[in-house]
Write a structure and sequence with these properties.
seven-stranded mixed β-sheet; mainly beta; two-stranded antiparallel ribbon; 122 residues; globular; Cathepsin D, subunit A, domain 1; single chain
Length: 122
């Protein structure tokens, strides 16, 4: 569920082109959602499609690709981004947050480092 916005930077995997955006922190969204025109302007082309279920229960298919997402200029990760509808707002999804080792503090409207679980079989 979206609760606050955070400035992010979206860039190509090689870092040659980037754009800063304000994105909703949305732990209810699996992947990060970036408007299609932003990804296209960066030269990021769709590389696969995925199916998604919306809060309304409707199912949709969207193009996806990998891009680099940076938060606070210090945490960057190559992650899956969904080509979002025009006019929609960017969302920073749960998978991207987990990949970055970040959790959500909704009360103080901030992202916080978390200790991740690693439970190898022994």
């Amino acid at each position: 569920m979206a609760s606050f916005q955070k400035e992010i930077e979206v860039s190509t995997i090689d870092g040659s082109r980037s754009q800063k955006l304000r994105a909703w922190v949305d732990t209810g969204a699996a992947y990060t959602w970036i408007p299609q025109s932003v990804l296209e302007d960066l030269g990021i082309a769709p590389s696969f499609r995925r199916r998604f279920r919306l809060a309304s229960g409707a199912e949709i298919e969207r193009d996806c690709a990998q891009a680099t997402i940076s938060v606070d200029g210090s945490r960057s990760i190559i992650t899956i981004c969904v080509f979002g509808d025009e006019g929609s707002e960017p969302l920073l999804g749960a998978i991207t947050l987990e990949e970055m080792g970040l959790g959500v503090d909704p009360l103080n409207q901030r992202l916080i480092p978390v200790t991740l679980l690693l439970a190898p079989f022994q």
